[in-house]
Amino acid sequence: MRLPVLFFVEAVISFGSSLLTVGIYFYTSERFGWGLRENFMLAASQGLIYILGALLANRGAKLWGRRPFLIATYLVLALLLQPAAIWTRPAVLAIVLVAYMFVISMAWPVIESLVASGADHHEMNRRLGAYNLLWAGTGAVAVAVNGTIIRYFPAGVLLIPLLLHAICAGLLWFARVPGEDQPEAQADDAADRPEEQLLRRRRLALWLSRVALPATYVVIYSLSAMLPSLPAIKRLAITQATLVGSIWLATRWAAFTALGATAWWHTRPRVLLWSAFVMAGGFLGTVVSASAGSAGLALPLLGAVVFQAILGLALGMIYTASLYFGMVLSEGSTAHGGYHEALIGLGQALGAGAGAAAQWLFPGSTAAATVGVSVVIGLTLVGAVAVSVRARRS
User: In 139, 165, 169, 372, which residue has its Cα 20 to 30 A from 379's Cα atom?
Assistant: First the structure.
């Protein structure tokens, strides 16, 4: 069994993990009555621990080997979820979710490396395109049906991921996967090396994506923590709320589809810069629209849907470029996968941390949370502009 094994595992794990990451805030709001402050604090804690786990992934993979390390992480994740599935208490759930985030942050860089290993830049584009489509597609479905699970089978929010992680550990135990016995980096022949101008563009794109990527997860986890508390979403039944709240995931998947099938963006690194500004506008538009609870329901919901759609397209552009350029320049290394995931954790911690701080100062204020998160996004946009200007002058 070859590459399809990894794709299957990644798609299945993404479904389970999405219920416990971007989708968990609907569960905590519905089950425990959590508001902005509690959800922001959970997201910030998960982001901080995610950074540490991602940076440890390369060390663990080298010590154990990539496939055995991946199997071990999935088994640990299944075991971790058992206490929260048995004792449905807020404190137990919070501790388990933070621990879960630490362990899964070590798994993603390894599977990214295994998928990318041994591929030239053309093949890597195809592989990473398929990789992004699968995890984004199953993640979008998970968030969309999350409300149905919460309403009719609330224990499933924990039991379904537990079962899926155990199944994937067993599958990897019996199946060989491509690249597991290969060195992580394989130098291309001199004739296959990109020309210097293309290499400079790729490096610029990598630096732009490293600035913009944390901003995308500032947006993702801040918006995920806020959505259940926004008036237009809060007035919906939970089954409808998660469906509306998954629009940005669906359009991110559409962006992955388009970008995986094309290569025009490989030589246009500044598309990342414009995507970052569009992303900021999409976030603000979604929050402002969904906060207009006194203007009836149809108009705020329409605005939230439209701006989420725009947001998802921008998020897809930035994520795709960050993963692709990093893997091309590092030749599919676990170390780069770790840096990529650590930047995700950094964005989550900064955005949710800013939102939590705003809630301590102005409890229950959506406007304060939006301003706090927007300041962080604005700073990253300034950084992206600075990188672009410096590259143009060099």
Answer: 139
